[in-house]
Amino acid sequence: MNYIGAALAWLGDPANASGPNGWHARMVEHLWYTALATVIACLVGIPLGYAVGHAHRFRTAIVSSTGAARALPTLGVVTLFGLLLGIGLEAPMLAFVLLALPSVLAGAYSGVEGAPRDAVDAARAMGMTEWQILFKVEAPLGMPLLLGGIRSAALQVLATATLAAYVGAGGLGRFLFLGLKTQNYPMMVASSLVVVELAVIVDLAFELVDRLVRRSVPAGAVAS
Amino acid sequence: MSWILDNVSTIVDATWAHLWLALPAIVISFVVAVPVAWVASRFRRSRFTLLLVAGLIYAIPSLPLFIILPLILGTPVRSIVNVIAALGLYGVALMVRYAADALDAVSKDTVLAATAMGYGPMRRFFGVQLPLAGPALLAGLRVVAVSTVSLVPVSALLGVNSLGLLFTDGFQRGIFAEVFAGIAATVAVAVVVDLGLVALGKLLMPWERASLRGARRRTHTEDEQAVAA
């Protein structure tokens, strides 16, 4: 456990913490990558998932394509895009969006698709248009499932964003690869601890939002 | 594409190495997760804690875990034991939730009936609960297997041989075909392992298909009765 002590000492050293290459800046960068990839995945995944879920069609296509996407090795996708797009943020970002998309898509789709049929039929009988049904009935009832999908997408990206540094981008992975090259264990353990800590904080934040969302939706009617 | 034809033996070697890292980890995931899930399902109070710990383990990023685990195990960073242990740890963390849900879904009446017939805890578990939870356990294990196979390549960053080496080598030398072949081979391994698990499930649970057919026939006749009525 002396490695943990050394890692904490590394984190506490102001020389390692501040400046554009310090771990504070890299941590912010890491969070920024995570947020950006998750938001882009949401912009693509939510409309697509809602459309497919509302239509009650292409179920098999969604299930099998999200399953296939999960079999893709992220390191392979990162390096493949790295070769195609060159050094920089574009390649890893594209790979992270691809990594986040299945979870967001599955969450958006299953939330809308699983909204109780009674509620949807009642809304239709009351004369709601299809758009109203989607946004006033199905989407709110599917919100907890959508949030669950976004949550696992964000955590996956956060954990994988260390690979960005392999193709020349920043983030906390910088210290991992630098430490690997120079056999600097305190540095590697320290940056790992920061990533794990970020994961716990992000997970807790989503837990909080989840409780708020669930409070606003009638418990019995939530899609499952 | 000529790179692929010139390096078939490298790809085959890496595929075998990949498989020998993934398969033990998948077996460990199942063998360790089921008893833990049994505890979680049997003792209600332990469930929350066990699933929380499993969730936290799964949240640890893989590259740091590959680096930190040797410090705890005392193995060299490039040791296969270290990689299998890390993959197994993720597998267990993911599998525990599926297994706990699978065991919970077994009808309480059936378990009570087995107890009333004088089944001891061991015989009740292996003779009643485990077979009934089988299909749900298999579904969970398939997810674990695919995610394990796609996680193996990260170990190539430490220099361990697997299909991941095609990514690092291909990236450093700028060979597009090599990286592409690595991705295709990894997905192929995942598909083969998945099909293998499905086949194993059919072999171990022959009643599943029979009962599915039976269920379909039953609903069919029920429909006919409904129409007749």
How is the topology of this model organized?
The complex is a heterodimer of chains A (224) and B (229).
Chain A: H1 2-12, H2 14-17, H3 23-55, H4 59-71, H5 74-85, H6 90-113, H7 117-125, H8 130-160, H9 173-182, H10 185-216
Helix pairs in contact in A: 1-10, 3-6, 3-8, 4-6, 5-6, 6-8, 7-8, 8-10, 9-10
Chain B: H1 2-6, H2 8-42, H3 44-59, H4 62-73, H5 80-104, H6 108-116, H7 121-151, H8 164-173, H9 176-204, H10 206-228
Helix pairs in contact in B: 2-3, 2-5, 2-7, 2-9, 3-5, 4-5, 5-7, 6-7, 7-9, 8-9, 9-10
Notable features of this structure?
heterodimer, A: 224 residues, mainly alpha, MetI-like fold, 80% helix, elongated, B: 229 residues, 10 helices, 85% helix, disordered C terminus
Q: What's this, in brief?
A:
The complex is a heterodimer of chains A (224) and B (229). By secondary structure, chain A is mainly alpha-helical.
Task: Describe the overall structure.
- Chain A is an all-alpha fold and 224 residues long.
- Chain A has one domain: MetI-like fold.
- Chain A has ten helices and no strands.
- The model of chain A has no long low-confidence stretch (mean pLDDT 85).
- By secondary structure, chain B is mainly α.
- In chain B, 85% of the residues lie in helices and 0% in strands.
- Chain B is built from ten helices and no strands.
- The longest helix of chain B is centred in the first third of the chain and has 35 residues, at 8-42.
- The interface between A and B is large, with 40 and 41 residues.
